[in-house]
Structures are given as C-alpha cells and as structure tokens.
Amino acid sequence: MFGLFKKKSAKEKMMEQYKKLMEESFRLSHIDRKESNFKQHEAEELMKKIEAMTD
User: Fold this and answer.
1) SS3 (DSSP) at 6
2) How would you label 21-47 residue by residue, b for 16+ Cβ within 10 Å and e otherwise?
3) How many domains does the chain have?
4) Closest by Cα among 54, 55, 53, 28 to 42
5) Are 50 and 25 in contact (CB under 8 A)?
6) What is the pTM of this model?
C-alpha cells in the first residue's frame, strides 16, 4: 500500500520500455520479420544504456 505513490527510477522506466519493445518484437516476428528485427535492435540498444547506468 505504501508503494502506491512511489516514483519509478529512470532504470525501472527503461526496463519497462525494454520489456515492451521485446514483446512487440515477438508479436511482429509472426507478421513482419524486418520490423521485428528493428524492434529487437532498439531493445538491445536500450539494454546497453541500462547496463551502462549500473556500471
């Protein structure tokens, strides 16, 4: 209950965005492989930024 108004950190927001990109990539893999690869590349670049934040 006390976590209701807790603001998310930048890392948490980026992880959510990463998860959404990977889900979108998976969904697109059945329809449009090129677009799926593009989404996956975006997600990988985002993960590199996240990892750079933790180092």
Assistant:
1) coil
2) bbebbeebeeeeeeebeebbebbeebe
3) 1
4) 28
5) no
6) 0.82
